[in-house]
């Protein structure tokens, strides 16, 4: 009869992982399972108990790899951002790359709505740094003066994450309340069209456009406006 291996402890008294456990439960597996839980239930759905059930392991084994929920959320966010950045190939022109990066992040936040808030809460950590670096390199490639690079990067970053986060929040609300997008837009457009023409001429004029607008196209149009403004300020 084979003997059971004794539980080893480190100098701090914590259990030392056996080779078998290390092979069966990796940090990458934990992160991928966390992403799935976050996609299904948002941040409230990510608990060590739910993660333990999903991975069929004990919470202690997970804590060994990732010591807190905050670090786990950042790691999950970084995995999504890293994949998103790697998927965007460098275009011939920095402006085209910025459009591709912006749209890729817009789509990633739409697919993983929790990413937007996770990024905002960890501005100094790797997920945000990856985005800033990618945008910053392209802004520098446009020829923006060093003194204006901070403002240019900040404006692009705030627009991409702000609009992307709001779009994702709108989608979540619609799904939670089982609201059909077309029906919702039609009802709002109808209300706008019935506004007093003397008090709200502009809003009333947008009613038909609201019914048929596309969120991604609107996002790109706004991004192009910002890029046009950055380019117009470049030295001749």
Write the layout of secondary structure elements.
Blueprint (H helix, E strand, L loop, with lengths): L18 H6 L2 H15 L6 H8 L3 H7 L3 H19 L6 H18 L2 H8 L4 H17 L3 H31 L4 H13 L7 H5 L1 H6 L2 H18 L4
Question: Any key phrases for this structure?
Answer:
mainly alpha; flat; single chain; Tetracycline Repressor, domain 2; Arc Repressor Mutant, subunit A; 236 residues; 13 helices; 72% helix; 2 domains
CATH superfamily of the largest domain, by name, is: Tetracycline Repressor, domain 2
Helix share of residues?
A: over 70%
Secondary structure tally: strands: 0
Low-pLDDT runs of 5+ residues are 1-11, 17-23
User: Whole-Å distance between the termini?
Assistant: 83 Å
CATH architecture of the largest domain: Orthogonal Bundle
* CATH topology group of the largest domain: Tetracycline Repressor, domain 2
Order of helices and strands: HHHHHHHHHHHHH
Radius of gyration: 23 Å
- Quickly give the structural class: mainly alpha
Overall outline = flat
Total of domains: 2
């Amino acid at each position: 009869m084979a003997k059971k291996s004794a539980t080893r402890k480190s100098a701090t008294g914590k259990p030392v992982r056996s080779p078998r456990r290390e092979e069966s439960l990796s940090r990458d597996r934990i992160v991928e399972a966390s992403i799935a839980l976050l996609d299904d239930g948002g941040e409230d759905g990510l608990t060590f108990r739910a993660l333990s059930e999903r991975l069929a392991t004990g919470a202690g084994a997970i804590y060994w790899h990732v010591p807190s929920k905050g670090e786990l959320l950042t790691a999950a966010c970084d995995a999504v951002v890293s994949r998103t950045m790697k998927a965007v190939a460098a275009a011939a022109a920095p402006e085209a790359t910025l459009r591709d990066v912006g749209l890729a992040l817009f789509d990633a936040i739409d697919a993983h709505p929790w990413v937007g808030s996770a990024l905002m809460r960890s501005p100094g950590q790797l997920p945000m740094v990856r985005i800033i670096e990618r945008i910053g390199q392209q802004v520098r490639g446009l020829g923006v003066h060093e003194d204006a690079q901070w403002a240019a990067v900040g404006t692009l970053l705030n627009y991409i994450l702000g609009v992307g986060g709001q779009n994702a929040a709108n989608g979540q609300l619609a799904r939670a309340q089982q609201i059909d997008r077309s029906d919702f837009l039609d009802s709002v457009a109808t209300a706008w069209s019935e506004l007093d023409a003397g008090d709200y001429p502009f809003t009333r004029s947008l009613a038909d456009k609201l019914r048929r607008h596309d969120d991604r196209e609107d996002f790109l149009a706004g991004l192009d406006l910002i890029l046009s403004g950055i380019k117009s300020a470049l030295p001749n």
